[in-house]
User: What shape does this take?
Amino acid sequence: HWLGRPVSAVRFVLPTHLHFDHLLGVEPLARRAGVPLALGRVAAEHVREGRPPRFPARLPALRALPTWPMQGMPVFSRGDWGALQFGFPGGTNPFSVPVDLVLDDGDALPGFPGWRVLATPGHADDALCLLHEEAGWLVAGDTLRNFLGGEWNPLLVDPGAYAETRRRLISLPIRRVLPGHGPMFDTPDGLGAIRARPWWMP
Assistant: This one.
């Protein structure tokens, strides 16, 4: 509706990772549109095995609390509370909608010329980004965010994997980032110009 396009234009629903703030509403949308889910390889393995996703450790995760008012203090709807098996700690994501498309690192995104899938673990083991290299656009999920002008995400389950993800993304000609939190932002000098925030900042 926001894009001014009919639901019939949806071909599949692809969450960037299995954390609740990116997963609630995914299955209802797929059911309404009559389309399957698409998942990255790691996310699909989690779902198939009934294995909950990892979350950042509790103490570092407290850095997320100040970002709640930055996002307008959203609250769960009544329907969200009935979906605690989806994306929450301990949840196994028992989708009733079929997962018909499993995407690997480097795969082209079916039906979307120029877009390809990047596995970008660090914030989540199953994190994905979508890259249009010619345009220089990156759909970043939570790999990057924009609460403070555009920044690397300090909330991590695997700092070593995230360091490799950062090195990989910095090497790519990315000029615009569409993050999962906050408005899109431009990076005319590439992602190497983005600095990590001090530990005491959210």
Remarks:
- The mean pLDDT is 90.
- The first helix runs from residue 20 to 23.
- The CA atoms of residues 99 and 133 lie 27 Å apart.
- The first strand starts at residue 37 and ends at 40.
